[in-house]
Design brief:
- It is a single chain.
- The protein is an alpha+beta fold and 213 residues long.
- It is 44% helix and 20% strand.
- Strands 2-4-5-7-6 form a five-stranded mixed sheet. A two-stranded antiparallel ribbon has the order 1-3.
- The mean pLDDT is 92.
- Bound molecules: adenosine-5'-diphosphate.
- Adenosine-5'-diphosphate binds next to helix 5 and helix 6.
Amino acid sequence: LNQPLTSILNNARAALRFLDSGALAEDELRDILNDIAMDDKRAGDIIRSLRSMVKREESEMISVPLNDVVRQVVSLFNSEAIIRDIRVETFLTDDLPNVTIDIVLIQQVLTNLMMNAAESMVQESRERKISLRTEAGDGHRVRVVVSDTGTGIEEKDIGKIFDPFFTTKRSGLGMGLSLSHSIIEAHGGHMRAENNIDKGATFYFDLPTGEGE
Ligand code: ADP
């Protein structure tokens, strides 16, 4: 939710700055207001999807290529990557079977993994890189792998990171991974994490394709 809200705030501030300088063209104002409306809708969609999952109502499950969802999230993350000087690489396997998902929720899982990866690289002075991979998983599953070049997870914390309210960040909530884990399980998938041999951490999740049922 922070992402659309920050974007709304930035756009509103930009419009005010343009207004104050007397340099606001009508077209620009329209673009800014359209962006605000779009981000507001995105925030509303996130709340609606989370609420229906928590209340175990029917959520909007549709069959989509997972690569499309990864591409959408990477493009939403673009400005964040530029601001934080992070290179985002994708290795998307073609012709994977579709997955039946609540897109808004799976977008949240991916966004959360990318934000965590970004936050783990804040102190990193060398290469800051997030790699996303999609591939066929075991037994009618599609797997997504998100890898970073950050601090990695302290060995003593590895068993706790999916617990609600577990955080090592000063202003962390500790809800991101717990919710992400629940979202993946609610879709019939699994999520896990491990440290890389050289540097950083890798998160894996898979989703069933519905084939072979
Ligand atoms: P928060 O981001 O609010 O701390 P999360 O549930 O998303 O909550 O993450 C819990 C904890 O897991 C983080 O505080 C951090 O210690 C650890 N963690 C998550 N992702 C990574 C990562 N990519 N690299 C290193 N540690 C991570």
